[in-house]
Every structure is written in structure tokens, then in C-alpha cells.
Predict the 3D structure of the following.
Amino acid sequence: MTIQVGDKLPDTKFKTMTADGPAERSSADLFGGRTVVLFAVPGAFTPTCHNNHLPGFVEHADTILGKGVDEIAVVSVNDVFVMDAWAKASGAGGKVTFLADGSAEFAKAIGMELDASGFGMGVRSKRYAMIVKDGTVAALNVEDMPGKAEVSGAAAILSAL
């Protein structure tokens, strides 16, 4: 079943890169007692994700954080090393937290998995953005096509805040 506004996010683990190497970050740590903007992309470095979706959140990070948001995070079904390389290549480090959902466990747990086998990408995540308050989904914008980044973009999230 697909997650909806008012639902609590499941307890899952993400991988993130730290100065000491890969580390786990739990959903309880990320979302508990905090307001987080989480957006998901089908794949790091893919054209829409890299050129359209991520840049808006980087550009508007200060404005989003100024509206009472504690953290902005992007999640993708990629390994932690790819996500770290994407953070460095995009210049988004320090503004956006990069979370690896390498086996699509989070995507599947919230019903947002996407079968991209036809593109040789296997199971990925649908493109969406959500506002999470203390672990509960307060707003959820899901794209109807993976190649679009409109309702899940930074401008749409800003108007929801």
C-alpha cells in the first residue's frame, strides 16, 4: 500500500557517507521530532534528477530551511558510494543530505517502488517529495511520470510549507 498524508513512516535504515566512511542512519533518527523535506529520485546522475530535480532544492535550500525545516534530504535506490559521488559532483553537500536506499527497502516499505527494468535500471523509486513532521507525512507530492520534476520540485514544496 502506498504511503499517504497522515501515515507514520516505517522504521528503516539508510546509508549515508560520513568522514569516517559509510554509516547507517535510521528513519527514527532522521525524522523523529523534526521537520524534514524528503524528495526521491529514480537514480543519481540521471538527466531529470541531476539537471532538474536536485538543483531546485539546492538553489532554494536556505528559503526551505528558513520555513522551519530542519533538514532537506534526497533518497535514491543507489549505493552509498554513488550517492556520495553525486553529492560531490552536484555541489549540494551541506545543503542536501544524500541517502542511499540501495536495495529499495524504503521505497518498497512506503509503496513507492518503480519497476524501471525496461530501461535496464531494475527496481527504483518513484519521483516524489514529502514534508515529514516527527515521522508523519504532512504533505506528499508524487509525479505521474518519472521524467517530470514538477509537483515534487522545490517550488511546489515551498508553497506547501
Q: What stands out?
A: The first helix runs from residue 27 to 31. Residues 84 and 150 are 25 Å apart (CA to CA).
